[in-house]
């Protein structure tokens, strides 16, 4: 048995012609192409709608799009299954999802993780490989792409439902793979909550949990009978010059569900199997972090350091205040201390406690989110207190 799991794949302007022409040799090189051909099954995360029509949804962040002819590149790589459960698949709305699914089905590439109802989006995909029945469950964190009562979309991680989905899937399969699109971008460790969720997924029957979305290689955790990969990097997504985007891992599952890692290196707008020196460096760092999180309290310690770095940015967004270009320039010159001081002066201890309560308390959190959605939809709800 030989199953490959690749990370985020997004055709971009820099390599779109290679995707359109189905030039797999140029996109991934001879060595990777040979590895792909020798595999029994190939799974990837397609993180972009394939459509010719731009109908971007209302969201924060970039709205991705790739032409339908990009499918030729996926076909040339012999991809068998893509997960669509990610934060970009609904960037071009319902028509973008319709178009993507139509192209995939015409190309005989299976898909998992989206649907027109919650039940449909949460359905797993099952296939047979070398006599083994393999179940794949795909879910994503709550961003602008998730399915709801009004719109189709991606299957969200649901702490009341997702664990049961995995449990029932395991009852009917030899092995279960969970593709969890979550975690913070450019962070190589799990958050405490992310680790807790992944542990529970293994407890419920997952043999492998792969956390995609972080755009960087993270680490591996062996937990009970399962393996968790916190961060795979991108497979091929030429969207940033950040060091995080330059390397990734191709996960290889062999007989008896033995897991191996093949380091990859981005070269300009394409990807290649890493050379021996780079391969050793990537794996040394990967397994060093994997050993590191075995220390008690290290996950919490690392995450507190990371969260503290982002606190000013989050408080600035919550305040609704946008600083002018002069202040932002001066702030950079002064080592990012000016805006930090202004924000923390505005957020007294009392205000921080109130904000914490609105976010942390389940009842307040739900009320806050519902109110924001009503405001964004431009609707007016009759005052129930009249």
Structure description:
By secondary structure, the protein is α/β, with parallel strands linked by helices. Helix content is 39%, strand content 23%. The chain has 13 helices and 16 strands. It has helices at 16-20, 24-38, 71-76, 93-106, 118-121, 162-171, 192-203, 276-292, 298-319, 325-333, 338-346, 349-360, 362-376, and strands at residues 3-10, 41-46, 81-83, 110-112, 114-115, 125-129, 132-140, 153-154, 175-181, 208-212, 217-223, 226-232, 234-237, 247-253, 259-267, 270-273. Strands 1, 2, 3, 4, 13, 14, 15 and 16 form an eight-stranded mixed beta sheet that branches. Helix 9 crosses helix 11 and helix 12 packs across helix 13 (362-376). The longest helix is centred in the last third of the chain and has 22 residues, at 298-319. The chain starts with a strand and ends in a 10-residue tail after the last helix. The model has no long low-confidence stretch (mean pLDDT 92).
